[in-house]
Design a protein that fits this description.
Structural class of chain A: mainly alpha
Largest sheet of chain A: none
Order of helices and strands of chain A: HHHH
Oligomer: heterodimer
Radius of gyration of chain B: 19 Å
Radius of gyration of chain A: 23 Å
Strand content of chain B: under 5%
Distance between the termini of chain A: 60 Å
Number of helices of chain B: 8
Largest sheet of chain B: none
Distance between the termini of chain B: 38 Å
Number of domains of chain A: 1
Number of strands of chain A: 0
Strand content of chain A: under 5%
Shape of chain A: rod-shaped
Helix content of chain B: 55-70%
Amino acid sequence: MRTSLIEIERIDRWLFNKHLPEERLLMEAELQLDEQLRLRVSQQKAAQHLVWQYGRKKLKQEIKMVEKRLFDSVQHRSFQNQIKSIFNF
Amino acid sequence: METIEQVEITTREERIVSWYEGLFPAVCGYIQKRGGDFELAKELFQEALVIYYEKYVLIGFLPQKAESAYIMGIVKKLWLRDHKTQRRMEQLGTIDITELKQPSPLIHKLLHLLEASGKRCMDLLQSFYYEGLNMKDLSRKFGYGSERSATVQKYKCLEKVRDEVNQKSLSYEDFLD
């Protein structure tokens, strides 16, 4: 794996608290001294945030898709009737 | 307390179906009795499922109460949040419903860009970080020959997203309100 990917893997472990105790001390020291590393960590955190938002968006789509199927298909008629009787429609 | 066997349903979609079939009628009854309509019941249930998924399913936490009681508790809390009945909220104190904020316009724009330029990468990353798939399942899902290949690809994809953030001269702080 090339060097930049090794660093990404290392930052990933750091962000998710999966590093070894000795790695933590080293990383903390490097973060104190290396402004560029601090920036890359922050950008990777931002990238993770984007992935999380993307995952959430996909989950919402999946929930809506299931909901639509449950309310549209003949197979789920008794479920639909149950809900209809609650709201009287 | 639920056992592992009880919650071991094969796919996320099947879990969603079982949540709807098992719980949505009770949610509708609760909302209807309080003057809410079908649309509101759907909206609150969708939000409750996302909260439950992120807070409990992803981290592998099995609630002390039955799963259904937890999801119902989230729905009640969301209802009370919208109707500002703080005292009743406190009675449901242990259930955390930290709100799902709408993504900022900046995040919207970046997600759109990333989806257009690298949907496969975003799908791979979210499968690992958001769906919680292990590397074995991830390599099978995306057709990689080994877990190692999938791992390398995961970091390449993360690098790609990070580069996009870098090109826009952004950092994590820019995403905070």
